[in-house]
Amino acid sequence: MPRSTEEELVNAIGFAMSRWQDAVETFDGTVAEIYVLSAAERRCLGAISHGPRPANVVASETNLTPAAVTTLIDRLEKRGFVSRQPDPDDRRKVMAAAGKKTEELVRRCYHPIFEAGAALLEKYSVAEMQFLLGFIEEVEEMQKA
């Protein structure tokens, strides 16, 4: 049933976002169960899945202390999820990079979601996608705050 009033639309969007958040949480939880990952480990892998990051950046992106991230990286490296590599800008520093198991996890679990999402977006104009991106980024900031 179409919603017509602003209040009905705001409520419908809020409930839809809540259901979406629950679906993402359930999906991520299932991935964590399959790969035997804690929530912190999964967030760490998410932070490095788009490219190598120094531990302090991973700490910032995951809301963990640098010491906790170092311990996490050690554990994940032993299991093949993370590899360490020199920072190209400062050879004294080390970057955490996705290991073979993380690449497999992303390919197996998240790449199909990405492809399905890209297919959904094909029906939207560039302007509509810019609006969606802006809205999602604002909601992310709101949620973080």
Give me the Rg, rounded.
18 Å
Q: Tally the helices: what do you get?
A: 6
Low-pLDDT sequence parts:
none
Amino-to-carboxy terminus distance:
33 Å
Order of adjacent strands in the largest pleated sheet: 1-3-2
Number of strands: 3
Shape: elongated
Tell me what portion of residues adopts beta-strand conformation. Answer: 5-15%
Q: Which series of helices and strands comes N to C?
A: HHEHHEEHH
Main β-sheet: number of strands, strand sense, barrel status?
3 strands, antiparallel
How does the helix and strand content classify structurally? mainly alpha
Verbal overview:
This protein has 145 residues and is mainly alpha-helical. Helix content is 70%, strand content 12%. The protein contains six helices and three strands; from the N terminus they run ααβααββαα. The protein has helices at residues 6-35, 39-48, 55-62, 66-78, 100-121, 126-144, and strands spanning 53-54, 82-87, 90-98. Strand 2 and strand 3 (90-98) form a beta hairpin. The mean pLDDT is 92.
